[in-house]
């Protein structure tokens, strides 16, 4: 039974909408009568969630966000940041960083990483001003180009997150990637948009400018595709959910509304 509870809790955690992990945890505590041991047993699910969602965290003494991802994981709950050349401990449950230490950058593609980080920063500033981004060494001598942009508006009952993750292989000049958008709207209902686009391998010269030009083109096309999809939903599926005519199958002639029985009743006329 305990293992089933941990599995169920892990599923809730991994499926938490953007910006709502703390709410999910509070609900779990209520359902489990604040059994902290279950949350501790679900620690791997918290780690998976934070790495997949590219969680951002501020290092102690710093106002700048850094990323949590599989690519900058050092194991044993520690991660590193390329820009500050530091490593830190990260608690996946509280989402807090601590124990910052110096950490040198080790990569055979340091120059490309540095130039790619600069062009990524320019791209992010232009298109995703509130985003957090980074370039990390990745397996098989590749480079991971990551970006996450969060926008939370709980007072208006919605939260959203956009994530992009690219892998560039300098040896083969191959670029692959995945783009994800996750939006949760929960005013008087519960609607969630989850969409993913995969970039098939494409050949791009080992130049930060060329790599970013390709990424910008892909993201522009994806966003235009999303806009067209929203238009189709508005004019198609959503519109078909609404009744085109009243139950009488006749359109209301508003200029003659006073002649209708309901109009007379509202106006105080004789029934």
From TrEMBL:
Gene3D superfamilies membership: F-actin capping protein, alpha subunit, F-actin capping protein, beta subunit
One term under GO cellular component: actin cortical patch
Listed GO biological process terms: actin cytoskeleton organization; barbed-end actin filament capping
InterPro entries: CapZ_alpha, CapZ_alpha/beta, CapZ_alpha/beta_2, CapZ_alpha_1, F-actin_cap_asu_CS
Record's keyword annotation contains DNA repair: no
Key word Ligase present: no
Alphabetically ordered keywords of this record: Actin capping, Actin-binding
Recorded superkingdom: Eukaryota
Pfam families recorded: F-actin_cap_A (PF01267)
Subunit structure: Heterodimer of an alpha and a beta subunit.
Record function comment: F-actin-capping proteins bind in a Ca(2+)-independent manner to the fast growing ends of actin filaments (barbed end) thereby blocking the exchange of subunits at these ends. Unlike other capping proteins (such as gelsolin and severin), these proteins do not sever actin filaments.
PANTHER family: F-ACTIN-CAPPING PROTEIN SUBUNIT ALPHA (PTHR10653)
Family classification: Belongs to the F-actin-capping protein alpha subunit family.
Protein name per Swiss-Prot or TrEMBL: F-actin-capping protein subunit alpha
Organism expressing this protein natively: Letharia lupina
């Amino acid at each position: 039974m305990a293992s089933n509870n941990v599995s169920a809790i892990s599923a809730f955690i991994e499926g938490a909408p953007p910006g709502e992990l703390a709410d999910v945890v509070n609900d779990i505590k209520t359902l489990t009568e604040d059994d902290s041991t279950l949350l501790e047993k679900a620690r791997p699910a918290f780690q998976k969630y934070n790495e997949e969602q590219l969680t951002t965290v501020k290092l102690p003494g710093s106002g700048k966000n850094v990323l949590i991802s599989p690519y900058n994981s050092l194991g044993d709950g520690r991660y590193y940041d390329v820009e500050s050349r530091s490593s830190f401990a990260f608690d996946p449950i509280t989402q807090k960083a601590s124990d910052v230490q110096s950490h040198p950058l080790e990569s055979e593609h340091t120059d490309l990483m540095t130039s790619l980080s600069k062009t990524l920063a320019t791209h992010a500033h232009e298109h995703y001003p509130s985003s957090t981004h980074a370039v990390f060494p990745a397996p098989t001598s590749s480079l991971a180009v990551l970006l996450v942009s969060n926008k939370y508006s709980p007072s208006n009952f919605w939260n959203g997150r956009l994530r992009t993750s690219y892998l560039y292989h300098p040896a083969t000049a191959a670029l692959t990637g995945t783009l994800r958008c996750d939006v949760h709207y929960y005013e008087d209902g519960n609607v969630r948009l989850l969409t993913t686009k995969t970039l098939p391998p494409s050949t791009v010269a080992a130049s930060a400018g060329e790599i970013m030009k390709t990424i910008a083109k892909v993201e522009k096309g994806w966003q235009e595709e999303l806009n067209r999809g929203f238009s189709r939903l508005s004019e198609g599926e959503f519109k078909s959910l609404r009744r085109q005519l009243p139950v009488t199958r006749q359109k209301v002639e508003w200029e003659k509304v006073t002649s209708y029985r309901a109009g007379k009743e509202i106006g105080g006329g004789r029934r």
